[in-house]
Amino acid sequence: MKSFERFGSLVLGGLEWIGGVARLVMRVARVGPRRPWGVDDIFHQVVELGVRSLPIAMLITLFIGMILTWQFGWGVEDFGATMALGRVVSVGLVPELVPTMLAITVGVKMAAGMTAELGSMKVTEQIDAVAALGADPYKKLVWPRICASTIALPLLIALGNLIAMFGGMLIAELKFGVPAGYFYETYIDELEPLNYIASPVKGVTFGALVGIIGCYQGFNTKFGTEAVGASTTDTVAATAIVIIIADFYLNNLFF
Amino acid sequence: MTEPIIDFRDVTKRFGDHVVYEHMSLQVFPGETITIIGGSGGGKSVCLKMMIGLLLPDAGQVRFHGTSVPDLDERGLSEVRRKVAYVFQGGALFDSMTVLENIGYALREHTTMDDEAIRARALECLEMVGLHTSVAEQLPASLSGGMKKRVALARSIAIQPEVILYDEPTTGLDPKNIKRIGDMILKLQRELGVTSVVVTHDMPMAHKVSDRIAMLYQRAFPFVGTAEAMWNSTAPEIRDFIHGRIRRAGASGAYTGEDDGLRDEEEGSDGIA
Question: How far is B256 from chain A, CA to nearest CA, in Å?
Answer without folding.
Answer: 32
